[in-house]
Amino acid sequence: MKTLKLLAVALVIGWLSGCSSTGGKDGVSVEDRGTAAGAGSEGATSEGVSGYGDLSIEALNDPDSPLSQRVIYFAFDSSDIAEQDRALVAAHANFLAANPDVVVSLEGHTDERGAREYNIGLGDHRAQSVRRMLEVQGAAPAQISTVSYGEEKPAVEGHDESAWSMNRRVELVYVGY
Amino acid sequence: MKRVRSSLLILCLCLPGWVQAALTIEITQGVEGAVPIAVVPFGGSAGMPEDIAAIIAADLARSGRFEPLPERDLIGRPTDAGQVRFQDWRMLGSENLVIGNVETLGPDQYRIEFRLFDIFRGRQIAGYSLPASRDRLRYVAHKISDIIYEKLTGQPGAFATRIAYVISDTANGAKKYQLQLADSDGYNPRTLLTSEQPLMSPSWSPDGRRLAYVSFEKRRASIFVQDVVSGQRELLASFEGINGAPSWSPDGHSMALTLSRDGNPEIYSLNLSNKQLRRLTSGPAIDTEPVWSPDGRSIVFTSDRGGGPQLYRMSVQGGPAKRLTFEGSYNASADFAPDGKSLALVHGAGGNYRIAVLELDTGLLRLLSEGPLDESPSFAPNGSMIIFATESGRRGVLAAVSSDGRFRQRLSLSEGNVREPVWSPQE
Amino acid sequence: MHGVLLAVLIVSLDWSPTVKPGAHKAAPVQAVAVDAGALEAEVQRLQQLEEQKQRAAQEKVEALERQAAEAERKRQQEEQRLAEVKRKQEQEIKQQAEAERKRKLEQETRAKAAAEQKRKEEEAARKQAEAEQQRKQEEARKQAEAEQKRKQEEARKQAEAEQKRKEEEARKKAEAAAEQKRREEVARKKAEEELQGRLAAEQAAENAQRQSAMDRIIGEYSGWIRDKVARNWIQPPGSDSGLSCTVEVSLIPSGDVTNARIVRSSGNAAFDRSVEAAVFRASPLPVPRDPEVMAQFRVLIFEFKPGSI
């Protein structure tokens, strides 16, 4: 987890530096970067790296890609995305932006506490949070669908915080992959 | 002195209803408790598939209003009015006595006769004779409980009623969800629907013939309406996003529900005849769990527009909503009492989720259950009890509590995790 | 010489019959340790006692002899005295008789002389007297007449006056008597009234005391009854909101409830039933034994008013 995050940060730095090195334009289209990235985005290199590493479809199946991290966790009764998850969301956003045919389903969940229908709403809010961040970061709205399961599909059965914290989540489900 | 006394006497004679200046004693407080009642095992019960007297005693006890005497304390087993000796029963301190007899008319055909006595006055209050087929035996026993309850409390009983609920289970590694119907004491369960995907939020139609519910069988939430008897289903709402929390209007013509088709969970009212939708709430907050007031004029719902989930009330037309709950950080899942004067709800404070009752005119909140994970309260149609879901061991189970909080009882049901009970209307 | 010695020897032999051993058995002697001095003293004391006794007896005898002598002496004295008295009496009688005789003699003599004198005088006087008598008779007659008249008159007047006086007196007496009677009557009535008043006051005080004692008892028992009924009253839920019900309860002297009648319903059937049941369940109620106080408890009114202080 940590290494991936570090990797993501490194990629960002690399991307930024890459930006400047190719002419200082911000928000360069991902397509330019994509081909120059090359395979194997391990390790933090400060220059010549496109930042997100491989944004090709194969990256989805790469266990070393940040895209393999598909769950974002939330605090109780909150739908705010944590600071440390932003990079991950960005990674997915970039990937989606790079692959306009790819569709992702955002599944919002909550822990078991409280009213079920309210938790449907909360799961929905969480999914919407991730959607908004993805769209801001380049994903097209048509690529994203959301569904809320509320507390109905916990990842971990249990009646304590260790279980609950694992259930307050949004899962990014790439359809067909 | 004599004059004063005589004038006082005259004064007393003038007071209405007084014959003489008798000694008057004022009683300002009694004791809380369930009224003792003796329910004697019915005659002719040997070999019967159901113990009628036991069902009656359990019903009366579950209401919280009555305390049936333990069988070992019964001083006799009269089955006939002529066998009752009131002096003996008076000594037990019990106010009322129920005796009865079961007559087998034929294979699976019975006649149940019962009598209800006032022990202190030594006279019969009620006596009925009811036919019953084998599969209706429990129903008839519940009917008898209803009659007894009404005679003694002046309020209709709610024992011959049903509950609907959801059971989830894991079989062979796969999840299974069922929508079930049972008697209000949890007996005679019947499955209405089985699914591999979650089922939620059952809601009775006012005529007790249909159930609306949420099903994820299409991989996302959709609202269905199913006829309880025929099993016939109709898809009611499957809009983009959330379709949830269906709630019938008291006149049965509309359904309030939660939709997020406009991007955010909001409350809508759906006209069931022309399927027209009207949106009732707006704003970025989660607005859900609508319930109609019994007079059909307002809707109470859950909203976190104030930060955390709280209960609000608005007109059925929509518009400004008035906040109802101010205690605790979490108040949701409201259910109206049949008289419209109070709400049962889930109250969360300090990580504890308990069932509570909110008196609407005073704003007084009364806690009825212990927690820590109680949810889904539903009033009995006579307002005397509330059924809800709780945890026991590692399992979800159902419990009933009298609406004054005095008596609580767990309902025995099938295996699996039982949740979201809803009490049928009076039948 | 040898013969003399032998004679002396023989004489000096003991010629008393010897006791044969075993002829009779002597009773075993209880040996008591004796203090010779004490014994001597005791003997002396006893001797003294004996002497004392003897002396006392002797004295007694002497005293009796003296008493007897005295008595004899007195008797003789008395005898002498009586003889003396008798002698004197006789003497006196003699003297008296003598004196009497003398007197009588004198009297006779004088009487004789006087009679003579008298005769003479009488003669003379008689004559004078005759004359006087006539004169006097006349005068007397006149006087007597006058006197008689006067007296008659006076008597009549007196009698009249007396009559009047008597009448007056009688009237006054009667009046006084009547007055007295009236006063007595008044006084009697007053006394009676006062007595009655006192009795009434006493009675009232007694009544008041009894009443207050009764009130106290009634208050106590009322409290106990209230507590027992309240203990047995299972209040229906939600009944603090202004419901009230009045029940009239009939008791028998044992405190058992024979009837309970709702005189004012609360409007809520369950509430009414609960108060009836409370009364019956609390039966028998604690009631006083005293029949007069218990009479107050034969019919009780219970007002069930939850929430009212």
Overview of this structure, please?
Chain A has helices at residues 2-21, 30-37, 86-98, 116-136, 161-167, and strands at 71-73, 104-109, 144-150, 169-174. Chain A is α+β, with helices and mostly antiparallel strands and 177 residues long. The longest helix of chain A has 21 residues, at 116-136. Chain B is mainly β and 427 residues long. Chain B is globular and about 70 Å long. With 309 residues, chain C is mostly helical. Chain C has a three-stranded antiparallel β-sheet, covered by helices on one side. The radius of gyration of chain C is 63 Å and the shape is flat. The relative contact order of chain C is 0.04. Chains in contact: A-B, B-C. Chains B and C meet through strand 1 of B and helix 2, strand 2, helix 3 and strand 3 of C. Strand 1 of chain B pairs parallel with strand 3 of chain C.
Give a quick summary of the entry.
The complex is a heterotrimer of chains A (177), B (427) and C (309). With 177 residues, chain A is of the alpha+beta class. Chain A has helices at 2-21, 30-37, 86-98, 116-136, 161-167, and strands at 71-73, 104-109, 144-150, 169-174.
Give the uncertain stretches of chain A in residue-range form. 16-50
Note the quaternary state here.
Answer: heterotrimer
Mean pLDDT of chain C: 82
Give the biggest sheet of chain A.
Answer: 4 strands, mixed
- Radius of gyration of chain A from the CA trace? 17 Å
Distance between the termini of chain C: 151 Å
Number of extended strands of chain A: 4
The helix-strand sequence of chain A is: HHEHEHEHE
Instruction: Tell me the strand order in the biggest sheet of chain A.
Output: 1-4-2-3
**What's the arrangement of strands in the largest beta sheet of chain C?**
2-1-3
Strand-pairing-aware structural class of chain A: alpha+beta
Output the structural class of chain C.
mainly alpha
Question: How would you sum up the global shape of chain C?
Answer: flat
Supply database-style keywords.
heterotrimer; A: 177 residues; alpha+beta; four-stranded mixed sheet; 5 helices; 4 strands; 39% helix; C: 309 residues; three-stranded antiparallel sheet; 3 strands; 7% strand
How are the SSEs ordered, and which strands pair?
The complex is a heterotrimer of chains A (about 180), B (about 425) and C (about 300).
Chain A: H1 2-21, H2 30-37, E1 71-73, H3 86-98, E2 104-109, H4 116-136, E3 144-150, H5 161-167, E4 169-174
Parallel strand pairs in A: 2-3
Antiparallel strand pairs in A: 1-4, 2-4
Chain B: H1 2-14, E1 23-27, E2 35-39, H2 52-62, E3 66-68, H3 86-90, E4 96-106, E5 109-118, E6 123-133, H4 137-153, E7 162-171, E8 174-183, E9 190-195, E10 199-204, E11 210-215, E12 222-227, E13 233-237, E14 243-248, E15 254-259, E16 266-271, E17 277-279, E18 287-292, E19 298-303, E20 310-315, E21 318-323, E22 330-336, E23 342-349, E24 352-359, E25 365-367, E26 375-379, E27 385-392, E28 395-402, E29 408-411, E30 417-423
Helix pairs in contact in B: 2-4
Chain C: H1 2-12, H2 36-231, E1 245-251, E2 257-264, H3 269-281, H4 291-294, E3 299-304
